Amino acid sequence: MKFNEPATTNPIDQLKVVGQPVDRVDGPLKTTGTAPYAMDRHDVVPNQAHGYIIGSAIPKGRIVSMDLSAARAAPGVIAIVNAENAGKLAKGNFNTAKLLAGPRVEHYHQAVAVVVAETFEQARDAAHLVRIKYDRDQGVFDLHAVKNKATAPKGEAAETKIGNFTGAFASSAMRHDGEYTTAHESHSMMEPHASLASWDGDRLTLWTSNQMIAWSKGDVAKTLGIPKDKVHVMSPYIGGGFGSKLFVRADAILAALGARAAKRPVKVSLPRALIPNNTTHRSATIQRVRIGATREGKITAIGHESWSGNLPEGSPENGATQTRALYAGEHRMTSNRVAVMDLPEANAMRAPGEAPGMAVLEIAMDEMAEKLGIDPVQFRILNDTQVVPDNPEKPAGADPQSKDKEKAPHVPHPPFSKRQFVQCLQTGAQRFGWDKRSAQPGKLRDGRWLVGMGVAAAFRDNLLMKSAARVRLDRRGILTVETDMTDIGTGSYTILAQTASEMMGIPIERVRVRLGDSSFPVSCGSGGQWGGNNSAAGVYAACMKLRAAIAQQAGLDPERAIFADGLVRVGERSIPLAQAAGERELVAEDTIEYGDLDKRFHQSTFGAHFVEVGVDAATCEVRVRRMLAVCAAGRIINPKTARSQVIGAMTMGVGAALMEELAVDTRLGYFVNHDLAGYEVPVHADIPHQEVIFLDETDPMSSPMKAKGIAELGICGVAAAIANAVYNATGVRVRDYPITLDKLI
Ligand code: MOS
Q1: What H or E segment, with its residue span, contains residue 441?
Q2: What tens digit of pLDDT does each residue of 35-72 get?
Q3: Measured distance CA(292)–CA(164) in Å, rounded
């Protein structure tokens, strides 16, 4: 189904099930521990052995020798695979560094071998007996030291310029120019990367934990040099991803190689302490924001530059990108630069680009508002825009993650599909009690706590992605949905069941949803907050086809057929769906496609974050006291699961603001705090009262669901709202995340 024109009335608007706070349909499986995660697959194949990965002890250089003799002789050892004996391996499309190093080492803890043994403990013991000699090269580990060597990444719209930024900024009546830094961050999802691999001749079956089934199937095949149709990937339950599982990682490839060598199924999970350096992280950034405005608070010039680091060929953390679209202003410039470094691979983490970009831009907006003597909510409202002020033309095929798009003329200032940013700010200010904030910092006190309030915009793009699904109606009237879409804890099972239930007019209990299997139609997968809207639209498209097939089978006019209460009806005639299916099950499959829709209408989600903090007057300990997010993100398919997504994202924003930082050892070239004892994330006791308001919105330009993404909008801006609240409480402006108490004393 091609969706390229505004949605009019459609079956989804019946709103019996879509839009309801339906409990997770997979909830009982989760709470009873019976949802099988990759490491729980004890029964799917017999005779499973265990692999233990050895990570490189140097960040850059060469493996000189690897002595396997002691390890091979250790109890229970079946096979040891390294680059010397693995056979030819390629690099996956989505990997910057190789998943099995040798002889060259590209980063610390890059896998150099996997030891396969009868038990996990035997594999781990033997791994410690492998003797490796390295030849270490010098490396670059400090972003500040190489910032000036950063370059524009290839194949991306790295820089934009509109008007004459430099001149306009210099002649602005009021100016702000600030430099800010954000930290290296680790996804720290609950379930580690894990895979079970099993070969049947030349066919590989992989039970794994991965957000993007089709990408991972392709990359497993490419890495191992086998045809794609010989790879079967299953990932029906995933214990969190946040972008860490968008791509195939060493667990999957080394489980497959281990299984081939051992001639048995092999299970590999990455130990927690291996994850931050072996897998991907969000790069630290240095950012400079310049804002020029009239005395009345109209932005005349806005410039945002972002520098981050990555391995050679790696992509930047695009901190400046949202500044092209968020606020008005005649003269503008943005640039995203990346410096070559030798830290582990940097890649997407929840709201890549916008999360650190908004964390910085929205402090700068607060600083500018203060200089102007304008309330920060008002300053943002003053600079709203209903068209994109700066829309670069992207080079074709620039982004390996982007979908295939038809060539369409470039629109320099497209309208937003829907933008209710001002309404978010106004609703939030009113509901939060913003009028009680003191414009002057350090004025409010509650016992030993200095109290402050902060606001920030939330903004994150809403990506349109092709997505397919298959639906089957059987003789019992049970509808089964099949798509390779994943549920990373987000609620995909539930919203897809709701969508199918609404479309076919049957109770949700009669819908079965099967996900995360590469034998199902290729969906959009889970990433970039595109999963919910697009996968539901794919199910919508398949159901539209099934409706037509059912009507035809029943001899009813498909145009006039109404699907409700388990019946298909035209006028007086109605037939139970189960009966309509006839003797055989009815099957329909379709793909939602958007053509050039997102070229003509910029697709974004909007919101506002309000935060109240307390700062201990003596110790400078920061406690978040209250948080409110107001979101305008199209139709909310399920307010319960959507709220959970936003609450989770807000919590992650608290981490980014106050705690999270991968500490770099710039001599040895690795992240030191590579476990959950040293890398701090917020826990329940850190999280106070959180509230989420969804504006009543439908977006007819976003998809037939009229919905958008929500899961990453919730983090964008949170850190700045906290930073601004800390400033309001104390009068101390911290421009360097995380805001730990040493920076306030
Ligand atoms: Mo998200 S960082 O694309 O999983």
Answers
A1: none
A2: 999 999 999 999 999 999 999 999 999 999 999 999 99
A3: 12
CA distance 148 to 729: 35
d(CA 491, CA 115): 36
Separation of alpha carbons 565 and 497, rounded Å = 16
Domains of the chain (ranges, CATH numbers): 11-35+465-593 (3.30.365.10)
Expressed in angstroms and rounded, the spacing between residue 531 Cα and the centre of ligand 1 is 10
Ligand 1: nearest atom to the Cα of 245: 4
Asked whether the bond before 738 is cis by omega within 30 degrees of 0, the reply is yes
Rounded to the nearest whole angstrom, what is the distance from the C-alpha of residue 279 to the centroid of ligand 1? 14
Specify the pairing of strand 104-105 against strand 131-136. Answer: unpaired
**Backbone dihedral angles phi then psi of residue 411, each to the nearest 5 degrees:** -105, 115
Index of the ligand 1 atom closest to the CA of residue 352: 2
User: Is 621 annotated in the active site?
Assistant: no
Closest CA to 595 of 166, 5, 198: 5
Complex-level ipTM beyond the 0.90 threshold: yes
**Ligand 1 atom closest to residue 351's alpha carbon, by position in its atom list:** 2
Span from the CA of 290 to the centroid of ligand 1 (angstroms): 29
Look up the pTM and report it.
0.97
Nearest-angstrom CA–CA distance, 4 and 1:
10
311's tokens: 């391995």
Atom 4 in ligand 1: residue holding the nearest Cα: 243
What's the rounded Cα separation, in Å, for the pair 290 and 595?
36
Range list of H helices, 351-416: 354-372, 376-382
Q: Are 454 and 611 in contact (CB under 8 A)?
A: yes
Task: Work out the angle between the directed axes of helices 639-658 and 718-730 (0-180°, nearest 10).
Answer: 50
